[in-house]
Amino acid sequence: MDLFDRVLALSRYGYFCSQILAILALETVGEDDPGLVKAMGGLNGGVGFSGGCCGCLSGGACLISYFTGKPGPTEAESAGHKALMAEFTDWFDQEMLIHYGGTDCRDITKGNPAKRVELCPGIIAQTYEKCMELLSREGMI
Fold it and tell me: Of 15, 80, 82, 96, which one is least surrounded by beta carbons within 10 A?
């Protein structure tokens, strides 16, 4: 199954953007963390379905941080953490601004719930691929 089909399959199970990104990341490393998937649901639909910041932006940042962030009180984040976050968020901002006029869910969907079905699976797949590209390039995965 290719990435887009996997995104669609997860969507059919009732998962949204941030949760799908978490599931894909966990599958990539052979892990299972239902608590993380549940928690990521708070970012869906523009943070709590408010229409604000796209869940792919916040979810993608969480995905990168899952691999590069500070793991414990006596450990440091990975050396490239902040640079990867900046590169990802800059990429996302540019892509969404060019194609949809902004990074909020309401910008992307224009307030039309049907646009979520049309646009979001592709944005989720693009976001996941970009995160994996960045993490792979830096040897994090």
Answer: 82
Residue 131: which of 102, 103, 99, 91 has the closest Cα?
91
Q: How far apart are CA 137 and CA 17, in angstroms?
A: 24
Tokens of 133: 């590209």
Residue 53 has phi, psi (to 5 degrees) of -45, 120
pLDDT tens column, 68-118:
999 999 999 999 999 999 999 999 999 999 999 999 999 999 988 888 889
Give ∠ CA 130-4-51 in degrees, rounded to 5: 70
Domain that holds residue 21: 3-68+76-137
Assess contact for 4 and 43: CB atoms under 8 A. no
Question: What pTM did the predictor assign?
Answer: 0.94
Number of domains making up the chain: 1
